[in-house]
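Page 47, continued from p. 46.
Same chain as before, 204 aa.
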Amino acid sequence: QKRKDAAAKLVRALREFRVRGVATNKSFLLHVLENEEFLSGVVDTGFIAANPHLLEPLKEKDRAQKLLHYIGEVIVNGTPKSLGAVGAPPSVTDPMVPVLEPKPKTKTSLKETFDKEGPEAFAKAVRANEGLLITDTTWRDAHQSLLATRMRTVDMLNIAEANNVALANAYSLENWGGATFDVCMRFLRECPWDRLANMREAVP
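Result:
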């Protein structure tokens, strides 16, 4: 039993072991350590010759190597066309950003309640609220559905000040999801965490 326990520990260590770029005998060792004859201790000098399958290479997924290859490809050759970077460049436009004057504050916002008094006070304020609580989804659902989630961080920050005024009394702004995160990294090549930090500062 001790022999099998030791073999099991070695198998686990080998399966967690990663070597890229050079050939190793990892496959051979794993095949040997999982062989019943070897585990029982009944082997002789003809063991390898009698079990030629011990020399067969393992078929591994090699996810790390594929990921490194993809990152290198994007860095050297740019974003693959399969991600949508095809066709003519977009037309030059000069979108109008509305200028809105901030309204005088009449009460403490729910965000301020959360920051100053914590989640319990926030939940209590939500339950006590007499008006309709609105979640604006422009930066999430509309962005994804109408613009294929292709807006850059700078584009969103350009409208952030007006957004902050127009939606000052909103319950929340939905601006994050799977596609926005994915496109931010793979297509726009921006840091999604920097985007969140900048948007939080612009629209507190």
